Amino acid sequence: MNVTKDNIASIFFQYSIPSVMGMLAISSANIVDGFFIGNYVGDFGLAAINISLPIFSFLFGFALMLAIGSSVLAGKFIGEENVKNASLIFSKTIVTITLFSFLTSSVLFLNIKTLLHFFGADENLAKIAIEYLSIMLLFIPFLMIGVVLDYFVRVDNRPNLAFIALLFSALINVLLDWFMIVYLQKGIFGAALATGISQLILLFILLPHFFSKKATLQFVKPIGSYAHILKAFYNGASEFVNEISIGIMTLVFNYVMIKNFGMEGIAAFTVINYLLFIGVMISFGISDSLQPIISKNFGAKEHKRIGAFLKLAFIATSLVGVVMILLLLFVPDTLADIFLEESNDTTKQIVLSFATYLWIIFLFDGINLVISAYLTAIHKPLASMVIALSRSLIFPVFFIVMLPFVFDKNGIFMAIPMAEAVSFIIAMSLFRKFSPQNLGELNESS
To answer: Where, by residue number, does the polypeptide cross the bilayer (predicted)?
Structure first.
């Protein structure tokens, strides 16, 4: 495929379908995790995962920041037919993520208990969360390296290989979940071990590509200045901010849910995250697939093609939103029952109260994600960061503090939908400013 010259619809679907299928694989694996933990471990298992989320948000956010920021730079160099610099960025990125992931995971491993108490876990919840985190932190460096490899495989014209890696990782996670949690009855320890082992699959499938004849990007000696890596941090900063914001927002929501609903509140919020996960991840897959396409077309100054790709992405994410809205409006009970035992009636009622307002998110989130990805691909990270901060931190926290004064507990359930709606207004105004019609000046300044 030549993304700067071949048929636009064909390229869009050849990139977006594997990306979406990969995200669905990840989503299904996480949802299956939730199913097994919710039904075979219980509310405390779901709460343990949720209380650990800020740690994973930080680590995964760093990996995403480096992966997206550096792969977009590499894509622009490939579009300019400068493969040498693209390979140099790739090699330096792998060195950076390897060192950071192992060092940071080691420090966090040695301070698990302190972190969990800081996050608000009591002794009972901390005990289960430590059992989960102590295993996950051993494997998380391999996931972080795998995420970086996944993005570079896609920018190197192998989107199907990236999908295959994610699919196999998800399938192995599902099989090991059943084996560890149901068959061996290892509880939360088994869930963590299953997830950790499945993350190794990404490396085994993706790494050989860069030693094959199909690879444009090659491992080269990572010598010289690391200024491009600093630029990659800057360019991918919106993804890091987004993930970190989710972690902070989760801490705030956990506090509010415990205060208002007790332990069942955290479990319910975990289930809500699972319900959001599929729709958001599909839209994220669509928007994410745009980045290698747009970055190459940006480098080649094909601005009209960028506009055509964006139009297809807006249509696709809007269709995803319609499907999710219908599911949340007409079968919320069925969705909640997937993750909860029949005896968890209190938790289920909190989930259904959330679902009453949750569907509003899908009116806006797809377009917000597409615009944010587009801004990152055209090297406008600050604008992308504004959207990320608005939808995942500033407005969720603002509304969860303010709305309960007006709507009582219903204000808690309305906070995230309201944040997405306000962020949509901001995203559209930024899109008008940096629309494809205005890209000529941006190419010159990048």
So the answer is: 12-32, 44-68, 89-112, 132-153, 160-181, 187-211, 232-253, 265-287, 308-330, 350-375, 382-406, 412-431
